[in-house]
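so my prof wants the structure for this chain in the tokens format not the other one, which i didnt know existed until like an hour ago. anyway here's the sequence
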Amino acid sequence: MSQTVTGVIARAKGAEVEQVDVVIPDPGPNDVVVKIEACGVCHTDLAYRDGDIEDAFPFLLGHEAAGRVEQVGSEVTHVAEGDFVVLNWRAVCGECRACRRGEPQYCFATFNASQKMTLTDGTELTPALGIGSFAEKTLVHEGQCTKVNPDEDPAAAGLLGCGVMAGLGAAVNTAEVRRGESVAVFGLGGVGMAALAGAELNNASTIIAVDIDARKLDRAREFGATHTIDSSDLSEQEVIDAVREITDGFGADVTIDAVGIMPTWRQAFYSRDHAGRMVMVGVPNLTDKIEVPAIDFYSRGGSLRPAWYGDCLPERDFPAFVDLHLQGRFPLDKFVSERIGLDEVEQAFETMKAGDVLRSVVVL
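here's what i got, hopefully its the right format
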């Protein structure tokens, strides 16, 4: 039998979010109902609210979530009732061309629930990133549930579902930072801080944090930064020169653009070593263009790579990083800046835009 829970939706472009009744249908054969315990407030949720991703309103927001499996469909084998899980939006299919060639991190056909959650009047909701977890419960495909150690704090665990994994994976999976290398990270939101922590986890020797916000630079050392650059009053070239000065004039072995705007992209591009690796994990807008002289591209070796979800495989990465946190080897809990109620999501968007938090986390 379907059930009705409280959730937060974006009904129209740019309108303030609303707390409403959401109808959760019975799970299909491969679906599960998850009782949400915590869900991070991510910039992607704000992008959905503002119509910057698609126009399929109304959206059921929320996607950085952890909770307990409450009900399973008739053919579910991946999880069982009572399992503690982190939700993910890369439930790999195992059959598409990327999966068949052994690159499931690029899966083109990830799974979602077989039916829609709705408002009480029958209006279908579009769940953010196929999850929709600003709600007491949500309906997802079993492959969107990744079991992790139940000793973990749900508020911390859920953040692996998007932003933290994006930055962490950009350093660990995409850039493949190696012991003794130098790394420069541009932009110190949650994604950038996670990239710093990933560089430290992989034993980089020089980790440079770059941002315009002195508060974030102060915190960067908590996440592994060995050097900081306040770029608020510097030109692009001065930022590049500062990175090169720290790295003996050569540039960093790895640079990570965690913002996705063209000034930080150019800084990352030009401040890497001759054969350095650059990763873009910040999400650009729909109109920006990458423009550099062709000779500048041609005359450098190394690689330029985007990082989509930090090139992660949830079944491999989520349990491992939860365990590392519980062992005191990865600072996952430090990303939780504040714990809020479901009725405070709109306020959390304003706090996020002001740069006052790494993550506000809704705790249910």
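also thought this was worth mentioning. The radius of gyration is 20 Å.
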